[in-house]
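In response to reviewer comment 3 from the previous cycle, which asked for concrete evidence that the modeling workflow produces usable outputs, we include below a single protein chain processed end to end. The sequence was submitted unchanged, and the resulting structure tokens are shown without manual editing.
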Amino acid sequence: MRIYQFAFLIIAGITGIFCSSGDLFAGGRQLINSSKIYVYDGDTIIVENQGMRLVGIDSPEISKPRCDREKTLGYAARDRLRQIVEHARTVELADGGKRDKYGRPLVTLYADGIDVRRPMMAEGHAIVWRPGRRAWSDRLQHWCGR
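The workflow returned the following structure tokens.
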């Protein structure tokens, strides 16, 4: 698990995805009332009936877990993200203008100016998202140990 977290932080530093200015995002950052954010799971939020995916990370599944351990970890990830959002004095959303395969906007969420992916990764609630069959297998190994 630590290797994924380390790799993400290295990639983040190189690409600047933790940029504080929001310049990389088409719409910049938008201040949003945290009460309008429903945290569905560790990498999915719903704002005004629009599902949104946190870009670049993957957290354990709740709705279709591949094992009991993944479901347990999924609830922990969801609860942690909820805690981060609920305790923040300010919450901002940055939409990069891209969508996932389900049509959800890929967004970055900031709580008190900090990209929420940082604590989620650092605390083991999320790993770097990668596409493909091999990545799916790696996630199965990571969350379920098989």
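The mean pLDDT is 85. We consider this sufficient to address the reviewer's concern, and the full set will be provided in the supplementary archive.
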